[in-house]
Specification:
The complex is a heterodimer of chains A (450) and B (385). Chain A has 450 residues and is of the alpha/beta class. Chain A has 4 domains: 1-29 and 103-332, no CATH class; 32-98, RNA polymerase II/Efflux pump adaptor protein, barrel-sandwich hybrid domain (OB fold (Dihydrolipoamide Acetyltransferase, E2P), Beta Barrel); 333-359, no CATH class; 384-448, no CATH class. The mean pLDDT of chain A is 93. In chain A, helix 3 crosses helix 5 and helix 6 packs across helix 9. Chain A has 9 helices and 21 strands. By secondary structure, chain B is mainly α. Chain B has 2 domains: 2-35, no CATH class; 55-369. In chain B, 65% of the residues lie in helices and 1% in strands. Chain B contains 16 helices and 1 strand. Chain B is globular, with a radius of gyration of 23 Å. The termini of chain B are far apart. The mean pLDDT of chain B is 90. Classes of the chains: A alpha/beta (450), B mainly alpha (385). At the A-B interface, strand 21, helix 8 and helix 9 of A face helix 2, strand 1, helix 3 and helix 16 of B.
């Protein structure tokens, strides 16, 4: 297969200390596993099981109030030990205590002549559909309308992001089955973006259109690739699948059992040996990070995902549904005397040339300090540097703040997801919360336009 | 550091919620955050943040202004001593300038920051750093002998009308420092033009006079200065704008740190050069035939295009918009100089005019992006039908 080259300019790489080395380990056994409905954007959970009920691996636990074909299934066989709730009885975590080895099995017809309807039906019933997300809005794919194309990106550029090349190395066969199923579904090859130096290229994959991406973060985010390869227009849909999830889908079509496998890169500069762990969705964070390695748990922040766009969790929480990365960084709740002076404190990573940080090569240590206070937007032109797309990020953010649907639409809200603004958040001089603002804009669009 | 931090924490008590001086918290916060970057951690969005903040950005602009300010002090003394024929050393000149200029800076900061603090307390928002730059810019672009009360009133007008009325830093349409100058220019014209305002003590001591080069040209006079003095800045003019050389040092600082837009500066110079060359070819009067490269050196053009036109809030905000905006500032600067000798210095009015048009420029740049996207959608609809 001949690959096409694609160079995405603008953006920047944050080289952080403590990146997981490509070495796979078996974690401690997790006793409890959990599903968090917040992992699924736009989903309103309706429970299918009660506390104390026994569940099998692959058994639906809850579904979406607005669409009952969106089902989230249990990653393990066990018993619902607790459903934790927050304000207004919002479901926070559905905790499943692992026991037994029951699973729901499906009969998979021969893959050589499986029909589109059959594929869709199996995806819905097995819960594997949750692995597929549709753009606009990054919600779980709706089986009612097939996408114009499917995108899978193994080009990961975020700081601490997992190396999909490494994750897929032993799963190439399942990955290929996943690709075959998906390309049969849409009747054309799926788009696979890979990094410039990547072994996947030599794997002789079929039914894919390979794009070799050259570029710093955020060129690994699918939005920027879609924009260049097959831009999303009003009324169109594309699907996006994370590489390991596609292998899990492949595994399901091979065995007939839902596969919740998750290879997770645990990174952090305070960890003794940051590396990859072979685990499953929803396993406890304490099974992945040994609290003895960290002097005081309170001084650290645990993030499901990368430090730019992940979500904050506690040590007692669980791995997210889609996360191949778990980041552990120091809390930055310290004062810094005269820290705003230019050209001092160059150890703090900064893209701004008002610090000498850009001259210092090598890996950098980070913490969660805001490094200033929030202000009105004053500096212009800095967001564009980290947003390689034909969209005006600042104007789109302002349209989201106003909730101006028409402006949001014409400025390109359909083509972005909050994660794309990770570096905008990071680099903003006025410390605005771009990702939160865009998320609220997308929520308005989802509600008003759908 | 720990000791100071503890003292600050003790002082902070009455200002925190429930304390006696709770309402004055924004004022206390301004001083506290000057001393310490707060211990706030990220709560939403990206968990890690760049080391840069608005304080650092603004202080970088101030650093860029210092060379021009220092030369302004020297030139103030220099102009005074050569006119009075008193022997002087370099330090005498700087001292004389400092003696005249520091009170202006003090008044500008005191009045402006007082208003900023009052608004911050009244509206309960943190004090914004924008005035740190504005407060230094205002005295730098005024004539040296301007009475301090006039300066104070100009500051009040600029901060209240140009800035706070629109919602404070980040929301203003006009550049506040230039608004202060424009106010003074129209309110007190006798103190802002002529041949008795540009040299220190000119209005008090007979025999001292000095017209700016643009003023001389507007009056059809002969220019007695060489291009070299125009570049180095040993000519009469507003306090700190005369030296192109020292303004260029500031420009380098702004460009290298990425704080000022090089696009606006470059396109401004191109715009002014193009119009200057066209007028040279026409050459109907002394202003038109004044060499285009000298047009770039005299008056406040260099200072305006480097420090005023690049103000990110009042300038165009899109990349394409910045090119257009800068170019038009250059064009209008020369047009106003040549066609309206009543306002010998065109750059102030050119920038203020373009400040007003900047949102319109951006509007069309953004509109073209929206039209591009809509066309892509429509092309698709045609294909499918």
């Amino acid at each position: 297969m001949i690959s096409k080259e694609l160079s995405i300019k603008n953006g920047a790489t944050l080289n952080l200390k403590g990146l997981a080395v490509t070495e796979l380990d078996v974690p401690k056994m997790s006793i409890n596993y959990a599903l968090n409905p917040d992992d699924f954007f736009g989903l309103i959970p309706r429970m299918l099981v009660k506390e104390g009920e026994k569940v099998s691996k692959g058994q639906p636990i809850f579904y979406d109030k607005n669409n009952d074909s969106i089902r989230i299934v249990s990653p393990v066989s066990g018993k619902i030990s607790e459903i934790t709730r927050g304000a207004k009885r919002k479901i926070l975590n559905i905790i499943i205590k692992q026991e037994g080895d029951r699973s729901i099995n499906f009969n998979i017809p021969s893959l050589s002549n499986i029909s589109k309807d059959m594929i869709l039906q199996l995806l819905v019933e097995s819960g594997s559909l949750a692995y597929i997300r549709q753009r606009p809005y990054n919600i779980i794919a709706r089986p009612s309308k097939l996408p114009k194309s499917i995108f899978v990106s193994t080009h990961s550029t975020a700081p601490y992001a997992a190396d999909y090349d490494f994750i897929l190395r032993k799963r190439m066969h399942e990955f290929q089955i996943g690709i075959d199923i998906m390309s049969r579904l849409i009747g054309k090859p799926i788009n696979l973006s890979i990094s410039h130096s990547c072994e996947i290229e030599n794997a002789n994959l079929k039914n894919v259109e390979i794009y070799k991406i050259k570029g710093a973060h955020p060129s690994g985010n699918e939005s920027f690739q879609i924009n260049r390869i097959d831009p999303l227009n009003s009324g169109e849909i594309v699907w996006v699948i994370k590489p390991e999830d596609l292998a899990n889908i492949g595994s399901f079509f091979k065995t007939g059992i839902f596969n919740p496998k998750r290879t997770v890169a645990v990174s952090g500069d305070s960890l003794r040996s940051p590396k990859y762990y072979d685990t499953i969705i929803g396993s406890s964070i304490s099974s992945l990070v040994d609290s003895k390695e960290l002097s005081n748990i309170e001084d650290y922040r645990f993030i499901n995902g990368d430090p730019l766009s992940g979500s904050k969790v506690e040590y007692s929480d669980f791995l997210g549904f889609y996360n191949n990365t778990l980041s552990v960084i120091r809390e930055g709740n310290q004062f810094r005397m005269l820290g705003w002076l230019p050209f001092i404190h160059n150890n703090i990573p900064s893209f701004s040339k008002t610090s000498l940080s850009w001259l210092l090569r090598g890996e950098k240590k980070v913490n969660t300090n805001l490094n200033g206070e929030e202000r009105a937007i004053v500096v212009t032109g800095e967001m564009e540097k980290y947003f390689p797309m034909d969209i005006f990020p600042m104007q789109l953010i302002k349209a989201c703040m106003r909730g101006d649907i028409e402006k949001m639409e014409s400025l390109g809200i359909y083509e972005v997801v909050p994660e794309d603004f990770g570096l905008v958040d990071f680099s903003c001089t006025s410390k605005i919360e771009a990702q939160e603002i865009v998320k609220s804009g997308i929520e308005i669009m989802l509600k008003e336009v759908g | 550091m720990d000791f100071i931090r503890k003292q600050v924490d003790v002082l902070k008590k009455p200002f925190t919620r429930g304390g006696k001086l709770e309402k004055l918290y924004p004022a206390f916060n301004a001083f506290e955050t000057m001393l310490f970057v707060p211990n706030h951690t990220t709560s939403k969005g990206s968990h890690i943040r760049d080391g840069v903040d608005l304080k650092r950005t603004m202080i970088t602009v101030i650093i860029a202004l210092v060379p021009a300010l220092f030369y302004g002090m020297y030139n103030t003394g220099y102009q005074y001593f050569i006119q009075t024929n008193i022997e002087f050393t370099f330090f005498d000149a700087v001292l004389h300038g400092a003696y005249k200029i520091f009170p202006m800076i003090a008044v500008s900061y005191a009045v402006g920051l007082a208003i900023e603090f009052a608004f911050a307390v009244y509206r309960n928002h943190p004090v914004n750093e924008g005035y740190l730059v504005t407060g230094l810019l205002i005295p730098m672009i005024m004539p040296i002998d301007m009475p301090l009360w006039m300066l104070a009133i100009s500051v009040v007008f600029a901060v209240l009308i140009a800035k706070e009325a629109f919602g404070g830093t980040g929301m203003n349409i006009l550049n506040p420092a230039l608004t202060a100058r424009a106010f003074a220019f129209f309110a007190y014209p006798t103190f802002m033009s002529g041949d008795k305002v540009w040299v220190s003590e000119a209005s008090n001591v007979d025999g001292i006079s000095g017209e700016t080069i643009l003023g001389t040209l507007a009056a059809n006079g002969e220019v007695a200065y060489s291009s070299a003095s125009m570049f180095m800045g040993s000519i009469p003019g507003s306090v700190a704008e005369t030296s192109v050389f020292f303004v260029l040092i500031g420009a380098m600082i702004l460009i290298l740190t990425g704080v000022g837009s090089w696009r606006i500066m470059l396109s401004g110079v191109i715009g002014a050069s193009v119009v200057g060359i066209l007028f040279n070819l026409w050459g109907a009067n002394s202003l038109m035939s004044f060499e285009w490269y000298n047009q770039l050196l005299v008056g406040g053009f260099a200072f305006g295009i480097v420090f005023m036109a690049t103000d990110p809030v009042s300038a165009a905000q899109t990349t394409k918009g910045k090119w257009i905006y800068g170019f038009l500032v250059g064009v209008f600067c020369i047009l106003i100089r040549v066609f309206n000798p009543a306002y010998p210095e065109g750059v102030m009015l050119a920038i203020l005019l373009m400040n007003v048009f900047a949102p319109l420029i951006d509007h069309y740049v953004i509109e073209s992006n929206m039209i591009m996207r809509k066309k892509r959608w429509q092309a698709l609809k045609l294909e499918t039908t």
